[in-house]
Amino acid sequence: MRVSILMISGVLLLSTVVSAKTVVEGISEVSSFELLMYDNPIERNLKKLVQVETDENGRFYIDLSFTRQEVVIFKNKDFSRELSVYPETSYIVRLDNRLNIKEVIADRPEINQIFSVENDLNNLKTKYLQRNKSAYYNDLFKYLKELLISSGNKDPQYKVINSKAVTYAVANLKANSKKGFLEIEPYYLDKIDFSFNGVQAINIIYALELQFKFFKTNKKVDYIDFIEKEVNTIAENKPKAILDLILTSQALGRKYADQNKLFGRVEAIISVNASNALGDLGRSINDLHKSTIIGTQLQEFTFTDLQNNDISTKAFEGKFLLIDFWATWCGPCIKSMKKLPEVRRIYKDRLNILCLSIDYDIDKMRRFAKKSGYYEELIFAYSKENDRMDSYFNRRAIPLYFLVGPDGTVLGKAVSDPFPLIDQYLATNSE
To answer: What mean pLDDT is predicted for residues 88-115?
Structure first.
């Protein structure tokens, strides 16, 4: 057990951390918010950890359990903010009325160093604003070079190098000062780890650019060949393995890549990295995309709709059924849902869309459905059998979709983007 006494905004707080517990506590001007986390840093599907209610003084206390670095999200209906957290660490934060993290203190010095570097980088940007970009990128290069070379191989420094602030600074340098980036790149890649932030760093600095490069070919090259060629341009093994997994996973469920070969690559990455965090991430991606129920008859479930009527999955037989697992707090869910009414209008005689909310607050779901107007085309409902559904659908994170055929056979599963799956079965089999 470790006890820490921390002062934030004049308030003295006592924190106790046991084993691998992560404690997040503090003061918020927002009296009620949700704490979410990403299921993994590549798919970025969300899951809810807890609903937070502050006391009369605005204080809150959240006790979590993580085995590795994660990113949590403070969210209400209007705002969301991210915070990187580590196991066995106590954090005290101050949130304003827009959930901005105005102040944060950790009880481990190496974590506080991350916040110090973040402040340095923000101050550097503020110093120049838009007045002298050349001078800004020159000073940014000098700062990053000193940070990377002086950091050595100590573990605390790895956390700083893999932090979100350093990632965006390096990406900024790459986009605007190629010469400076190439000079610091070997030092940077040497310190990339398999943490959430490390994976996100490779995604932001390399993978997004490479995906754009592939699409510029109009998908005329073989995607597997493309991955192998681009991944081999990176010398360091850790970032190379991360980039391979990112580029592979981002094509899962897409028509332009051989799915069997992609899953084979994921399995190979898991095998080589069986005992480290990248192997865990590969298994997470496998579990998210694969399903043991595909090709089987959908089990019968009963749901409750907006009018409090009970409806069974059997009622949808005779048409295709898209099951959409979502929540009002899930931004990617809402983004995809905006397109579903039009899909329903196109395939109205052949397709029903069942939007199953996993919200704790069912009234909130009802308000969203009515305000959005989507209920005219989509069927909104919730289940009282969540434990059974979690087990049956392996419902780890959202957004998540299953397409069921007219005969009740589960045809496929989609993560984040259901539209290729819908097109595969409905656009190519028009009556």
So the answer is: 89
Residue 300, number of CB atoms within 10 A of its CB: 10
- Three-state DSSP class for 310? strand
* Nearby residues of 74 by Cβ (< 8 Å), 6 or more positions away: 33, 34, 35, 80, 81, 82, 83, 95, 99, 101
The residue type at 65 = S
pTM of the model: 0.69
Please tell me the number of Cα atoms within 13 Å of 96 on its side-chain side.
Answer: 5
The whole-angstrom separation of Cα 193 and Cα 161 is 9
Rounded distance, CA 368 to CA 259, Å?
36
Give the distance from CA 416 to its chain's centroid. Answer: 10
Calculate mean pLDDT across residues 170-181: 93
Return the structure tokens found at 100. Answer: 């901005």
Give, in order, the Cα–Cα distances in Å from 356 to each of 35, 47, 219, 224, 369: 21, 15, 34, 35, 11
Beta bridge pairs of residue 74 = 35, 81
Does 321 score more than 60 pLDDT?
A: yes
pLDDT score recorded for residue 292: 86
The per-residue pLDDT for 19 is: 40
- For residues 217 and 403, give the distance between their C-alpha atoms in angstroms, rounded to a whole number: 31
Q: Quote the mean pLDDT of the chain.
A: 85
